[in-house]
Design goal:
Blueprint: H1 7-39, H2 45-55, H3 67-74, H4 84-96, H5 104-127, H6 130-150, H7 155-181, H8 189-195, H9 199-206, H10 214-221, H11 229-242, H12 252-263, H13 267-296, H14 305-309
Helix pairs in contact: 1-2, 1-4, 1-6, 1-7, 1-8, 4-5, 5-6, 7-11, 7-13, 11-12, 12-13
Length: 313
């Protein structure tokens, strides 16, 4: 590490970045699915809800599921870090424990967002969840914008960005995995693009809206789109390199291998290897996160990714 910071602070910063990114990604996914249900009232609501649960690793159970139940579980549950409210609450607690490393504006952003959620939750039950989801997306973007504009490019900033990047790859892989591996409740390609915040960027690159497997190529391989797996892996690797980790570091090695593999993968090979590739991406992120925890947060041992990654409620 170039600047020595306590392992407790490093862990808090990493999980602050992860939880804010998770809240943002979950709000985008919920918003995309809600819009599709409104646009197509004949769509099977139970199948759409099961698809949402599959993306976020939540057991849907055997009973029919409706969107209100999904919102209660994935948006409004303050006790679960799988839900938006729980993730933002955990991000706030982590940021509070690292107040000496985050800027006052970042802390105020998270704190005011947390206190605004209760009113927005009540309003969502009367008028719909769109204002609630929009608030989460706007405040998440503001938080990371403040991180970029108010933090020095030191190790504290790198841990925030490292956490965001690993979570971003994980969410992208989850979205694509449901489309590729679970055809029974699979979302269509336009929904995937919208849930990834990539619909407009994709339209500019390909001069049209996505309804083909080329969407997977865009979300995995596009070098310029910041939410693509390749871009996020590159950012995570740069953070680890700047933290002083050698190339053969167990945290850097798995994501470096996948980043290199993605950079030289052509479209046909990607389509042929897609199911295996998604599994390898998720395994690489898990291995890297465990190695980061073992190296930088040794006082309490590696963070159990399975607990967080499984989105257990």
């Amino acid at each position: 590490m170039n600047d020595v910071i306590l392992s407790r602070i490093a862990e808090a910063l990493t999980w602050t970045g992860r939880y804010v990114e998770r809240a943002d990604a979950t709000s985008r996914i919920l918003d995309a699915y809600l819009h599709r249900l409104l646009e197509d009232p004949w769509r099977d609501e139970d199948a759409a809800c099961r698809s949402l649960y599959a993306i976020l690793g939540v057991d849907a159970g055997g009973q029919p599921v409706d969107m209100q139940q999904v919102l209660d579980q994935l948006a409004f549950d303050a006790l679960s870090t799988c839900a938006i409210e729980g993730a933002l609450g955990a991000a706030r607690l982590n940021a509070r424990s690292a107040r000496e490393a985050v800027s006052s504006e970042m802390w105020e952003c998270l704190n005011s967002t947390w206190h605004a959620l209760a009113d927005q939750r009540l309003a969502a039950r009367r008028t719909g969840p769109y204002a609630y989801l929009e608030l989460v997306r706007r405040r998440s973007a503001l938080f990371f914008g403040l991180a970029d504009s108010t933090m020095s490019r030191d190790d504290s900033w790198r841990f925030v960005i490292l956490g965001r990047s690993l979570e971003r790859v994980d969410m992208t892989v989850r979205l694509l995995s449901v489309r590729v591996l679970d055809a029974a409740h699979a979302p269509d390609w336009p929904t995937l693009l919208s849930a990834s915040g990539a619909d407009e960027a994709y339209a500019r690159v390909y001069s049209g809206f996505g309804d083909t497997p080329r969407v997977a190529e865009f979300l995995l391989l596009d070098r310029d789109f910041p939410r693509s797996a390749l871009h996020a892996l590159t950012t995570a690797e740069e953070c680890l390199a700047a933290l002083g980790r050698p190339r053969q570091d167990p945290a850097r090695r798995p994501i470096g291998r996948l980043r290199t593999r993605l950079e030289y993968l052509d479209s046909q090979a990607m389509e042929d290897q897609l199911p295996v590739l998604l599994q390898d991406l998720q395994a690489a992120c898990m291995a890297s996160a465990e190695a980061v925890a073992e190296r930088f947060f040794p006082y309490q041992g590696p963070v159990e990714w399975a607990q967080e990654g499984a989105r257990a409620v």
